[in-house]
Amino acid sequence: MLSTGQLQQLFSGAWITIQVTAYSAVIGTLIALVGGVASLSGSRLLRWFTRVYVEIFRGVSAIILLFWVYFTLPQLFGIFLTPLQAGMLALGTNMGAYGSEIARGAIQAIPKGQTEAAIAINLSPFHRLRHVVLPQAVVLMLPPFGNLLIEVMKASALVSLIDLSDLTERAQNLRTLRAATSLEIFTAVLVLYFLISASITLGVRALERRFGRGLDVGGGLGGAVK
Amino acid sequence: MATRENEPTSDGESAGGRPSPERPMVRFDSVTKAFGDNVVLDGLDFEVAAGEKLVIIGPSGSGKTTILRVLMTLERPDSGMIEVGGEHLYHEERGGKLVKASEKHVRRVRGKISMVFQHFFLFPHKTVLENITLGPVKALGVPKDEARERACKLLELVGMEGKHDQYPASLSGGQKQRVAIARALAMQPKVMLFDEVTSALDPELVGEVLGVLRDLALNTDMTMLLVTHEMGFAKEIGDRVVMFDNGRVVEEGPPRQMFSQPREARTRSFLDAVLDHE
Ligand SMILES: Nc1ncnc2c1ncn2[C@@H]1O[C@H](COP(=O)(O)OP(=O)(O)OP(=O)(O)O)[C@@H](O)[C@H]1O
Ligand SMILES: [Mg+2]
Q1: pLDDT tens digit string along A90-125?
Q2: Which residues are B252's β-sheet partners?
Q3: Which of A40, A152, B97, B148 has its CA 20 to 30 A from that of A75?
Q4: Do A221 and B110 touch (CB under 8 A)?
Q5: pTM score
Q6: Contact across the interface for B124 and A127, Cβ inside 8 Å
Q7: Which of B38, B71, B230 to probe ligand 1 with, by most ligand atoms within 8 A of CB?
Q8: In this structure, are residues B161 and B152 in contact, taking their beta carbons and an 8 Å threshold?
């Protein structure tokens, strides 16, 4: 059996994993929303810029991005990031690229009549987005965002490669110290990862209910079109 | 909302179908709009007097909806000018010259207009009350409490009191449309546009919406442009009927004359087809 001390090590590793995931999610979501809106903007420059961003950050593997941020930024620009900062920056920008595409699709799925009704009550373009289009689009974004977030959580194991003591790193540590059997260690790790992803799923469900009020969640936007 | 001194539609002057000599509330000046090769508005000229209830009729595809959409700035005309309340909608004067209006100018003039759609387009994620207060709070800067109070009065006006906290999905079509009318009224527009607002309703729900429109037409001095196929209703509340076809005015006149003795053959055949249908 794992000793209390060993369990504690795993827990503190799990906490790092949660932190990396959460911070990456915040950065990724912000980029996704801005990117989704910008990719549909009237400005060709903005659209072009988002396109390039999405293609680059989707195309580069997360691990290369992480190494680049952690090892190259200091050399190129003298910017030194802690492993945690590097991790959330790499994973966040990566998630933002995928998320932009999700956000764009969701915004486009909102019926045009919604924007037209918002113009008929003379809302500014910002208010149309903020109060009419985005609240409905977010409901469509949530399920794919939940999947994306779980991917990010799993990818966060990469930070163990830049010496951040996340859950994976702790497990490796315990194993090399032969403090417990691999079976025990990795079963515990598996359970912990599962608990984190299950919480993400539950959290996203709760958000869906919160933002889905009045909307026919699951069956599309019943009330919007009818 | 001012009330017209309980004097039914017999404003002697406007019954003749001509806008009053003072400045028109809405003026189209050679407005052209094409979708690709399809010329929908073809150098359209027409005026609507302040307070006038104008009924627009015409066959499907004749451009009725497009007229309202161009006026609501949902569709930009290719050429020509539109004035609302004596101000250009798509143009503004700068340095003595008439130039393309800024977004800010368009928004200010657009504030005089609101529109009710065939398919309601209520905001499904907002309650009935929130649907109505959104515009006043965000676009007019009315304090929330005041906006709520006014929304309640409007809901009473359209016979929807007690439904404040429901979401649109739980309402019938007729109820949705009445909320949509209240939402437009909350903007206190000078001009209201109604695009076939009863066409998407089950027959038994048409009456309740027409009732609300009748009240508005007879008791307010708002300028109203109504596209409708409800000829009986048009006869009752219209000051003037305009018949459109191919993006041009075919014929216009007071409802009694238009419906009983239209001059143009095209109006006659259109009316025959519609009235047959009823
Ligand atoms: N966004 C658009 N893109 C292309 N064509 C359009 C568009 N909107 C309208 N049209 C075309 O313009 C013409 C006039 O359309 P409009 O909707 O104004 O007619 P309408 O008189 O309101 O007809 P209905 O009685 O069927 O509502 C039609 O031929 C229609 O196909
Ligand atoms: Mg139409």
Answers
A1: 999 999 999 999 999 999 999 999 999 999 999 999
A2: B242
A3: A152
A4: no
A5: 0.88
A6: no
A7: B38
A8: yes
